[in-house]
Structures are given as C-alpha cells and as structure tokens.
Write a structure and sequence with these properties.
Blueprint lengths: L2 H13 L2 H8 L3 H15 L4 E2 L6 E2 L1 H26 L7 E6 L1 H15 L7 E6 L16 E5 L9 E15 L14 H4 L4 E4 L8 H7 L9 E3 L2 H9 L4 E5 H9 L3 E4 L6 E9 L6 H11 L7 E2 L2
Parallel strand pairs: 3-4, 3-5, 7-8, 7-9
Antiparallel strand pairs: 1-2, 5-11, 6-9, 6-10, 6-11, 6-12
Length: 303
C-alpha cells in the first residue's frame, strides 16, 4: 500500500468524485482511477460505489477513510517535525516571526543564548502575519513566535500563548491628542486619518481585521509593511498611526507620543509554536526555554 493511493482516495472522498479529485491533485483521471483500483485490490474490498453520481463510499470505505486520514496526517506530522530540525545537522536554526516581534524580542534573546551555543547559526524568517501560517513550520523552521494562529493546528504542533498586546495610537507632539490625560477612545482616534501596518497583499492591516470581527468597518488613509515607514508617515503629518504595543516602543524612541487606546476589541495574543522533537536536542531546549521566557516591553503576560 502506497501513500499516494491514500492521498488519492481521500481526495476522491473530499471532492466527491474522480474528476474533481484529479483537478485537485493535478493528475489524470485515469491515474486517479488506477490508484483507487490498486488500493481496493490491496485491501480486497470495494471502497467506492461507482454506480452512484456522485460516487459514494461503501461501508468499508467509510471505515477505511478514518484510518487513511490518521495515516496521512501522521506522515505529514512526522515530515514537519523532522523538517523543523533539518538545519541542526549543519549547525543552523531557523526561527519564524513577524517584523515587529523580530525587532523587539530576538536581538536580546539571541545575545543571551549565543554564548551557550557558540557553533549555532541563527536565521530569522520575518513574515507578515498573513504569510506566517502553521504550514511554514513544515519548511525547516525549528520554532515560531507569532500572533496566535487560527485553530485547528496541524497534528503534533504545540502552542504556548505567551502574552497579549493591546494596540496604541502614535501621534506627533503637536497633535491635539498628544495632550490627552489618560487613554483615548478609538472614536477620538478616528477623527483623524488612520495609518496602519499591513498592506492588502499581506491580507490587510490587523486592526481592520480585529474590528471587522466585531462588525465595524474602517478605511485607513495609508498602509505600509513596516513600523519604520509608519513612524515616518505619522511624523510627516499624514495621520495617526495605530500599532500593537510591542511595536509602539520603537515609535516612542523616535519622538512620537504613544497613547493607550480604550477599546477592548483592539488586542492580539502572541504564541510560540514547535514540535516536540525540538526538545530532544540541547540546542532546541535552550532556544525553547529562552523564547517561552520572553516578555518584551508593552506586552501583558497571559495568566
């Protein structure tokens, strides 16, 4: 029995027929039929009733489909876990994060553990939130530190939520909001043009997504990929910037006023992701412990 046969069988089940499965798998329909026939010969039972349109599972097919999913999922998990440690053979570790987390967390973190791991080379893959998904951990990434990923997670992938980040408003010193005594409402922020991180090619700004989940729609004046450019836009007087609290620390050092926003809708959780195989190595354990202990300025610990 070959893994290809199982993947083809599940494609037929999920897509409801041989033609749709061939399109999904980019294989000819005759190839799909051959895989199913070979699987049925190997098992000695009919799995798919071809007399119906669309094709339906036989009782044996229904039972086997559950086991096939477990097998395919298990193989995928094993591949991802091994891939996560691929670089260790050459003394290299790849970490996945976002630009704002990478800037604020990893310089000090790597400086702390580098003396313990003098022969290890570190690579930081900094992706926008939209591009940094759970599939990336099957592409040679040992550990990820990301805004919390949607569930369900791939089988075997571990998650530890580390902190929560509220969002902050960035204003120039001459902006009327800069004189606010305490947190400001988001309605007050919206009185000025809005500047956000996250272009449409990255799935859009996170603030827009968070508010949309609560039925509120906003349209920013400008979006950018990086906090540095956002700071520049605010300084140029184009509007008010809104960023997560961790990224806001850089803006404050650039001479802008950072204001708390009194709106419970605006916040995100950040989590670490890894496969258990990471903890089988000294390098992995050292890295894992350092990441789980990270707490950048502006972050709120999750109890």
């Amino acid at each position: 029995m070959e893994l290809d046969w199982l993947e083809t069988f599940l494609a037929v089940v999920d897509r409801g027929g041989f033609t749709a499965a061939s399109e999904q798998l980019h294989r000819s329909q005759s190839r799909v039929s051959a895989h199913i026939a070979a699987l049925e010969r190997d098992l000695g039972v009919r799995l798919i009733d071809r007399t119906h349109r669309p094709a339906t599972l036989t009782p044996a097919g229904e039972v086997f489909a559950r086991h096939a999913r477990e097998i395919v999922s298990g193989v995928g998990t094993a591949r991802s876990a091994v891939s996560a440690l691929r670089g260790l053979d050459q003394g290299a570790v790849t970490l996945l994060t976002t630009p704002s987390i990478g800037t604020t967390v990893f310089p000090d973190l790597l400086a702390t553990i580098a003396p313990e791991l003098p022969r290890v080379r570190f690579g930081l893959a900094e992706h926008a939130r939209h591009d940094a998904d759970s599939r990336s951990l099957g592409e040679g990434v040992a550990l990820a530190l990301l805004p919390r990923l949607p569930h369900p997670l791939p089988a075997g992938l571990r998650e530890r939520v580390l902190w929560r980040e509220p969002f902050r408003a960035l204003v120039r010193a001459d902006d009327p909001l800069a004189r606010a005594d305490g947190p400001v409402t988001f309605d007050r922020v919206l009185c000025s043009p809005l500047l956000l991180c996250g272009t449409s090619s990255e799935g859009g700004p996170e603030v827009v997504r968070l508010l949309a989940e609560h039925g509120a729609a906003i349209r920013p004046r400008a979006t950018t990929d990086t906090i540095g450019t956002l700071v520049g836009l605010v300084k140029a007087g184009l509007g008010i910037g809104v960023v997560n609290a961790v990224a806001a620390g850089k803006a404050e050092s650039d001479g802008l006023t950072v204001l708390e926003i009194d709106d419970a809708r605006l916040g995100r959780e950040v989590a670490a992701y890894w496969y258990d195989v990471l903890l089988a190595t000294r390098v992995g354990r050292t890295l894992h412990a350092a990441v789980l202990a990270a707490m950048p300025p502006g972050a709120l610990p999750v109890r």
